[in-house]
Amino acid sequence: MATKKANKKEVLLDSIFNESCIDTMKRIPDNFVDVVITSPPYNMNLRIRKGEYCSRQIVKELSTKYEGFSDNLPIDEYNKFHTEVLRELLRISNLVFYNIQIVTGSKRSVFKMIGEFSDKLKEIIVWDKGHGQPAMQEQVLNRRSELILVFENDYPISRQFRSAKFKRGTLEDIWEIKRERKKGVDNHGATFPEELIRTILDNFTEENDIIYDPFLGTGTTAVVSKKLNRRYIGSELSKDYFKICQTQLKNADSLLV
Predict the structure, then answer these.
(1) Which residues face 35 on adjacent strands?
(2) C or N terminus of the chain, fewer CB within 10 Å?
(3) Whole-angstrom Cα distance, residue 207 to residue 226?
(4) pLDDT for residue 33 is more than 70
(5) pTM here?
């Protein structure tokens, strides 16, 4: 993978930013990032009543993943935001792993994004979490899986990842990885398992590659990147989660000493 030039001064590597990812990406040059790994908001508070969308507060730890970001956006606004984010991600990086869960408040938007970015959609990986939480309504399927939409710029027409490290026949498109709840992290029901990040980094990146997570959450992408000797950049809007990210990175530093 390409080595980054030192003259791109606006981006601080191995740094996280307490701001919107849109603001961070404005400072990131074209094709600066090797791989994006992220899980955006699910829009869990947008529900349906009598056949129409409506905002509804449900269980907090499942619905307020991002403080300061409305998790009940009207479906058109939600789609507009994620379209903008994806366009920027594909400007700054060749390869994007976009983890989403199909819920009521995101379903139509996800299907639109798949269509709108079909020429960049390279692969869909199913993350099997091993157990589906009980649905909140009758006659609704338990959601055991999430999808990782993989977008690519340079060779999306093919299923071949030309820069991947895994050998033929060794990596499947269903990843059986159990959910993980971090110690000391409350009210966050959607933390990335470290194993999921490691699977991507081990198979699709090299040491010193630059990894970006625009919805950093509690910092798993940055922490695992640090542990595996990758450079990282992260954006997190929530002040509370940003502080957790800082603590997690300090703890990772102590483990590496």
Answers:
(1) 95, 211
(2) C
(3) 10
(4) yes
(5) 0.87
Check whether 64 has a pLDDT greater than 50. no
- pLDDT over 70, % of the chain: 81
* Nearest residue to 184 (alpha-carbon basis) of 111, 245, 95: 245
Identify whether the C-beta of residue 60 lies closer than 8 Å to the C-beta of residue 190: no
CA 226 to CA 16: how far, in whole Å?
A: 12
Where is 212: in which H helix or E strand?
strand 210-213
Main-chain phi, psi angles of 118, to 5 degrees:
-60, -30
Q: Please answer whether residues 11 and 71 qualify as being in contact, where contact means their C-beta atoms are separated by less than 8 angstroms.
A: no
> Number of C-alpha atoms within 13 angstroms, CB side, residue 222?
28
Which two structure tokens, joined as six digits, stand for 120? 């960049």
Taking only the tens place, the pLDDT of each residue in 176-217 is: 999 876 555 554 456 789 999 999 999 999 999 999 999 999
Give the pairing type, strands 210-213 and 33-38: parallel
Asked whether 219 and 249 are in contact (CB, 8 A), the reply is: yes
Contact 230, 207 (CB under 8 A): yes
Quick count: other Cβ atoms within 10 Å of Cβ 43? 29
56 band by pLDDT with thresholds 50, 70 and 90? low
pLDDT at 63: 40
Using N-to-C axis directions, what is the helix angle for 75-92 and 107-116, rounded to 10°?
40
